[in-house]
User: Which sequence fits this backbone?
């Protein structure tokens, strides 16, 4: 009887712990995502479009999950420093200049979280620590 | 007395009906009354401001003058290919105009670069290619910077209010300017606002339905 009670108690707290843990990170995700949406609207949308569709052969779309996966370690640098190098997105070459964006690490984390969980991407939360690590290694 | 009243009533009802049916677009710019004698009678006419002579080069390296647009309704704007802020948005919206009218004939779009140093003929061709623009409906024009600014500020942007003191004025502000077959400015629209661009498309259709010789006072 007593053992059952203890097991029950342990189970109860385990479940409670998991639930609160999950909602904690989900609140964090929602905060990053909604802040990121704002930044996207003011900084990115003119060129990359409301739905991340890009602009024909002029501006790359943000719908290529494989590109994001392969460039995880440099994306923050790319956004912050801009780029003049040609890139391949969705199998198509793009040679336009991406202008640099003066964003704080937390803003980069927010906008990356937004982009990487919109337009068909599902990468979850990118935290400010992740971005800081990437920025420390910008070439 | 009654007759006069009903007569006036009939006229006002008729006027209200016709103005509702046929929408006419305003004519912008300065206007001058001109009095001349026709068949012994004195007639007063109005001369409207029109787009003056110009000469630019398009993305194919062809020389384009005001004569190249004779008989066309056209939309003019000002941009540069490396503009990172509003130009892609303008291009996206202008593509909608292009795709709506590219097969109708007597219609053109001319986009003037305000950075002729960088936007050479090959650069303009590349830009057009990237936007999927072919044929001769949409020209990307290049000329002396001074000529471009002159025609922008003195001719095309007469419909835009002059409350801007920003450097470079409103040339940079992304307006789409609608010009009729008589080369008169009939509207200016914010090229970054999809709603205004939809209005532009509607107004082009209104202009297309306007009889060629029509003179609106």
Assistant:
């Amino acid at each position: 009887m007593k053992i059952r009670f203890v097991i029950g108690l342990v189970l109860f707290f385990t479940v409670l712990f998991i639930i609160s843990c999950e909602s904690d990170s989900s609140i964090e995700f929602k905060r990053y995502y909604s802040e990121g949406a704002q930044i996207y609207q003011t900084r990115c949308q003119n060129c990359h479009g409301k739905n991340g569709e890009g602009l024909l052969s002029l501006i790359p779309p943000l719908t290529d999950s494989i590109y994001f996966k392969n460039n995880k370690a440099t994306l923050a640098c790319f956004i912050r420093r801009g780029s003049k190098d040609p890139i391949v997105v969705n199998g198509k070459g793009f040679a336009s200049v991406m202008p640099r964006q003066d964003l704080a690490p937390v803003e980069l984390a927010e906008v990356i979280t937004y982009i990487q969980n919109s337009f068909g991407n599902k990468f979850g939360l990118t935290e400010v620590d992740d971005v800081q690590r990437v920025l420390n290694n910008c070439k | 007395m009654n007759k006069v009243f009903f007569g006036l009533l009939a006229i006002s009802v008729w006027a209200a009906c016709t103005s509702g049916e046929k929408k006419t677009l305003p004519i912008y710019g300065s206007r001058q009354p001109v009095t001349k004698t026709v068949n012994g009678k004195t007639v007063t006419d109005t001369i409207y401001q029109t787009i003056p002579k110009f000469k630019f080069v398009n993305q194919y390296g062809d020389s384009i003058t005001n004569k190249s647009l004779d008989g066309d309704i056209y939309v003019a704007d000002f941009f540069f290919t490396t503009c990172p802020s509003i130009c892609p948005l303008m291009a996206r919206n202008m593509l909608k105009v292009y795709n709506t009218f590219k097969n109708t004939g007597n219609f053109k779009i001319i986009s003037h670069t305000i950075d002729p140093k960088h936007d050479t003929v090959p650069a303009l061709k590349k830009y057009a290619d990237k936007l999927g623009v072919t044929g001769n409906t949409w020209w990307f024009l290049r000329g002396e910077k001074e000529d471009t600014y002159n025609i922008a500020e003195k001719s095309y942007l007469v419909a835009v209010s002059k409350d801007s003191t920003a450097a470079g004025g409103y040339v940079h502000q992304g307006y789409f300017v609608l010009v009729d077959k008589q080369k008169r400015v009939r509207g200016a629209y914010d090229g970054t606002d999809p709603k205004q661009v939809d209005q532009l498309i509607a107004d082009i259709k209104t202009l297309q339905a306007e009889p060629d010789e029509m003179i609106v006072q």
The beta strands of chain B are 31-38, 41-48, 55-57, 63-65, 73-79, 107-113, 138-141, 175-179, 185-190. The first strand of chain B starts at residue 31 and ends at 38. The mean pLDDT of chain B is 87.
